[in-house]
Write a structure and sequence with these properties.
The chain is of the alpha+beta class. It is built from 6 helices and 14 strands. The protein folds into 2 domains: about 1-85 and about 265-290, Immunoglobulin-like (Sandwich); about 90-265, C8orf32 fold (Roll), CATH 3.10.620. Helix content is about 20%, strand content about 40%. Helix 3 packs across helix 6. InterPro entries: Bac_transglu_N (IPR013589), Papain-like_cys_pep_sf (IPR038765), Transglutaminase-like (IPR002931). Pfam families: Bact_transglu_N, Transglut_core. This is Transglutaminase-like domain-containing protein.
Length: about 300
Amino acid sequence: MKYRVSHVTRYAYAAPVSLCHSVAHLKPRPMNHQRVINTSLRVTPWPSVTREHQDFFGNRVSYFSLQQSHSMLEISATSEVEVTIPALPAADADPPWDSVPKRLRETPDAKHLAARAFTLPSPAIAQQPDAVAFARASFPPGRPLFDATRELVNRIFSDFEYDPSFTTIATPISEVLAHRRGVCQDFAHLGIAALRGLGLAARYVSGYLETLPPPGQPKLRGADASHAWFSLFVPGHGWVDFDPTNDSLIGEQHITTAIGRDYQDVTPVRGVFYGGGEHELTVAVDVDRILPADGAC
């Protein structure tokens, strides 16, 4: 499936801003199941300095600096990508989950060495005994790793309520667990905390999910949003992505932008500015299918 993704972030300041330094994770990354056809980033007003680099996790990071007075900032990213359904582990490549921590520690190849970084706590995902306790019911001794994780994802979906009014980007996992509610970021963090607490490797994935309007109704422009899920390392296969918000594996409708230890590694836009006072932030996202000339899907 081919998509065109538009992500527009606007800041309107109450007073002029004299200097702004920002980084953005808005350009999709090439993956085995995802081909980036083209991608661009436009900043208004025109920045004094722009750079792009690849970070430790392989993400495309855009840096820009505005060094002139401005009262509005707009960051517009437009990309075209082609997404296929990722491959899943074969039955003989789904080891007992409790054998995996030892394999991660002792297998010296590059894939296992890289995965070890995602077994450790991170700034937004500290050690969470309550998250591990929640996961234990799905991970009895000897149960296959993929099967156990699939059940954990289902339990997060079933036991927690999607509530965008309850949490912020700073809400700790303990509160999400206590109140059984949150958003995609919270559910991804919860799953990662549980898996890491069991000695497994799990990473945070940010991106987009195509949403479709009810039958017979038009799609509202700008009404899509960023999305988040987590990825689990399965020895003998590689990374497998799970979406606990939707109780699913990722498919053709999931578009990957960036991968990190947690949300703080892959924030869509972050930075510092001088002046401005109060500001208003608006974000508009559109994920549109690119249909063939004959209109077939």
